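Cross-posting from the chemistry board since nobody answered there.

I work mostly on the small-molecule side, so proteins are not my area. We synthesized pyridoxal-5'-phosphate and want a rough idea of how it might sit in this target. Sequence and SMILES are below. Is it possible to get a predicted 3D structure of the two together?
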Amino acid sequence: MEIRSLVLRSVKALSAYEAKNIPCRIKLDANESPYNLSSEDMDIVRNSLSSLEFNRYPDPQARKLRAVLARRYKVKQSQILLGNGSDELISMLIACFGGPVLYPVPTFSMYGIIAKAAGRRQVEVKLDNDFDIDTGRMLADIKRVNPKLVFLSSPNNPTGNCFSSERVLGIAKTAPGVVVVDEAYQPFARSLGSNVRRGFLPLLKDYRNMVILRTLSKVGLASLRLGIMIASEEIIAEVNKVRLPFNINTLSQEVAIKLLSGKDSSAKAVKLIVKERERMFEEIAEVDGVVAFPSDANFILFKLEDPNMVYNRLLKKGILVRNLDKVIKGCLRVTVGTPQENSAFIEALRMVMK
Ligand SMILES: *Cc1c(COP(=O)(O)O)cnc(C)c1O
């Protein structure tokens, strides 16, 4: 029996996602927070462990955690669905609504990867020259292919910018399907006018087809794998039907409940990262032969003549960034690290570019 001949055509066409583990001194490639828990928070986590029932299944509905998050986001508990990372939520959305799945490019690769794995048609629409939504092109394609789902990452990974809110809302108003605004990096966004201060959350009530994704991964808790979907009760109830029963494990539930119940312990780190981002932007922009793109996220996209050479020489100095040359010609992406890591990166970049 030929195993490969048993595999679905849509799966055969895939290759496994390689999350490379490249050894390095300074890791600035995956948009993680450079800060581990404070020793205070670490104690809170340690203390919560002794009361856990490791022999029991987790709470299938994660009720307590959803209640904590509902308070934090000022929505009803019935408007929240949790995933094992927002990756799982993207997967559930596609399992629930199907395709075509439409998204602007370049953007987060998982929309396409998951749609492809599910055998759903993907429609990619180029962003404009400012990396903003090309409304004309997008609306034309929406009309043409009638997508069940539109994914908009704002701030967008890997370009770093927020899409203009009028354009996002224009899409949400016109699209015949569900419009997902993936706000993985929203905590790092500058406030760009009144209605985006809390991202698109306050606008949910006006757009019945809108879904918002948040995650704890970029704000210091990537290890927990906790993605948060916020939408109307109606949408949540439908997507919940395709969720596997115990998708959020007890450890992640308990740790998140304990860490998120008090004051927002990630706020200070986020503030520092934003400040460092602004410093890094100025300093990268000053390096001869490098163009930096402004960012509302915890990373900076920058462009230069020979990205592969620069990537390799940075790595030789122990600094790992993301090589995006194949996605956006000439571009590398660097995650904002600690002030010391950022200074080491800048210095290495200056030396390499000399
Ligand atoms: C990192 C990232 C995610 C992944 O979130 P997880 O919760 O870690 O699965 C989702 N969307 C975008 C745009 C990202 O960059």
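Reply from a structural biologist on the board:
Welcome over. Reading the output above for you: The longest helix spans residues 267-286. Residues 55-261 form a domain with the Aspartate Aminotransferase; domain 2 fold (CATH 3.40.640.10). Happy to explain the token format if needed.
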